[in-house]
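Before surveying the methods themselves, let us examine one representative protein, pairing a chain with its fold in token form.
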Amino acid sequence: MRTIRFGIIGCGLMGREFASAVGRWGHLLDLDVKPELVAICDTNPALFEWYRAHVPTLKLATQDHREMLASKDVDAVYCAVPHNLHASLYKDIVAAGKHLLGEKPFGIDAAANAEILAALRANPGVFVRCSSEFPFFPCAQRIVKAAQAGRFGTILEVNAGLHHSSDMDPQKPINWKRMVKFNGAYGCMGDLGMHALHIPLRLGWKPKDVRAVLSKIVKERPDGKGGMAPCETWDNATLLCTAADPKTGGDFPLTISTKRISPGDTNTWFLSVKGTRCSMEFNSRYPKTLRTLDYTSGGEQAWREEDLGYQTAFKSITGHIFEFGFSDAILQMWAAYCVELAHGAEAVPFGCVKPEETAWQHELFTAALASHAEGKVVRL
């Protein structure tokens, strides 16, 4: 059993999710690799107590990421920090020879992303991927396999997105995601867009152009000091793109939708692919239900619903009849990262986001900003 010793930089919500996944690693079967959490780093030491209480393998807790990166006990780092810190920290991590799983958007803007990718080229021995959990849901994986098998025929349209309603309350205090200097000009696209793009980009459905409509809905929020502060970033975004299917060479409309203010959606990821021979749809609101419409010439057109249960990319102890959830998706994503680090891309049925895919994402979002500002279609 190969052990990969991890450090976490950024001990908030997603850092705790990773630590929890490490603790549940025995849930997975037939793996010869495992993570071990040995170090944590955050500028807020109050966050350390949870880790000390729940992570028995912890050896180092520090407010200085350079101390963690100098440790010979750390092989790899999960970095979950605000977007403005991505470039400096990611570059330091790979320069230290540590493997990296970074958070999206992998740089606050295209220039920062280019800096990160240049650092990766200068350190080719370091394995680097970007986080995206939702495509590991069983229904999403079934759609991937259908696309790889050419089951859809000629693709008519693809719709993908991530919607949530965490900003519905206009009295919710402002945080860093509403500030351009921390979150970046992309707004909701930078927060949510990689989740929607992961599968389309992996299948080769790269956007060729974009027409974007961006919305700033809540103009200001309480600043926590008795006053109001301006909300600078985009709340909702809809991107209508032209994409090409590498299997047929034909173009089709690809819609990418990211929303922070979507009534009734707590955190809803969805993917719909419609084709001339087959169509499939999945929405995480119904986490085990895959909708499929198979069509033969002159035949009936009827949607069929199938409950997939716990049919995962990496085997687990959970029976196939049980339901799959967000924490399971995180565990599957981490299995993909660790197995690919240990054995290469051929060993994983579906891998984490690649660095070059983050660059394609930045190209799209930069073009989307220009499209909205100028009210026109922008070629990529």
Summary: Residues 355-374 form the longest helix (20 residues). The domain at 2-130 is CATH 3.40.50.720 (Rossmann fold). The mean pLDDT is 97.
